[in-house]
Amino acid sequence: MKVTILQFPGTNCEYDTQYAFEKLGATTEILWHKADKIPSDTDLLVVAGGFSYGDYLRSGAIAKFSPVMKAVTRYANNGGKVLGICNGFQVLTEAGLLPGALKRNDGLHFISKHHNLKVIKNDNIFLKELACGDILNIPIAHHDGNYYIDEDGLKELEQNNQILLKYTDKDGNIKNPNGSVDSIAGVCNNNKNVFGLMPHPERAMESLLGSDDGIKMLKGFVSA
Amino acid sequence: MKAVVNISLKAGVLDSQGKAVHHALDSLNFNNVNDVRVGKQIILKLDETDKTKAMAEVRKMCEDLLANTVIEDYDIELS
Q1: What is the pLDDT averaged over residues A152-156?
Q2: Start-to-end Cα distance in chain A
């Protein structure tokens, strides 16, 4: 299993992401954004978190024009498995590979804390090893994590089982930290090969650091 | 030619910054304000001198980069 991790100027979660997937037994490669192709042995492509291009204009808006993004789009359109975490999620929505957009948090503050997430759908290659209703304790760290999609778009997401994660409390009741429509924390595309989420599973790999629920989530990503 | 692009959240998309500013104005006793929307302004200096061509070009810039049309509207003033 080979995980390729994208790095833009301003990305800062690439090494945490590398640590997480290597802990799960994958081999990894960090790919600078000037690359014009994705390594052919890539099984999972991760757009890591951070502040690509300083979040100038809008989070992810400039990164979508990085040279590597054409290759990312080709990779995704050919069915390649793509994961966007935090800023990576923002980049994938800006690039049109995922529906919706991420706005400034409702409370206007940068939020950095552990939060509970509920698995909503598991009929996809990402969360297949989790059960619907499972609760995971995963950190969030974002300023622009307020997921927006219009009503028609939301209906489509529901009909196609594209809403994979929602923010909840530890008992699974909706608890919305940032104003996201329907408390959505993560969505996938219609073909279910591109997945984006605002929380950081790669930061929940050691119980000593508050939670190792990231292992439960990510181990399904590296199994065949 | 100069192009001034104003970008704001679409009507119906909750503008949290606008709401916070509205609240602050209210607490300063500016009570006659019905609604506040916060946007951004991008000013471009263009080599183009033809107004129609300039408008088409700036509109494309807005669609491709300057605005996220999922959540934002834009308008363009040329002078």
Answers
A1: 98
A2: 8
Q: What's phi and psi for A207, nearest 5 deg?
A: -65, -30
pTM given for the model: 0.94
Domains of chain A: residue spans and CATH: 2-219 (3.40.50.880)
**B1-39 tens-digit pLDDT:** 999 999 999 998 999 999 999 999 999 999 999 999 999
| Known active-site residue A132 | no
Kindly determine whether residue B68 and residue A148, on different chains, have CB atoms separated by under 8 Å.
no
Q: What is the pLDDT of residue A224?
A: 64
The partner residue sitting opposite A108, judged by closest CB among B13, B20, B65, is B20
CB contact under 8 A, A179 and B68: no
Residues 99-128 of A with CB under 8 A from B: 100-101, 103-108
| Percentage helix, strand, coil for chain A under 3-state DSSP, each rounded to 5 | 25, 30, 45
pLDDT digits (tens, 9 = 90+) for A45-69: 999 999 999 999 999 999 999 999 9
Residues above pLDDT 90, as percent of chain A? 99
The single residue listed with the structure tokens 């909750």 is: B14
Domains by residue range for chain B, with CATH: 2-78 (3.30.1280.10)
The catalytically annotated residue of A13, A14, A33, A86 is A86
CB of A75 closer than 8 Å to CB of A47 = no
Radius of gyration of chain A (CA): 16
Nearest-by-CA chain A residue for B66 = A57
Is A143 labeled as catalytic in the residue annotation?
Answer: no
Q: How high is the pLDDT of residue B74?
A: 98
- Which of B71, B72, B73, B74 to mutate against chain A (most A CBs within 10 Å)? B71
- DSSP state at residue A28: E
CB proximity B24 to A under 8 Å: no
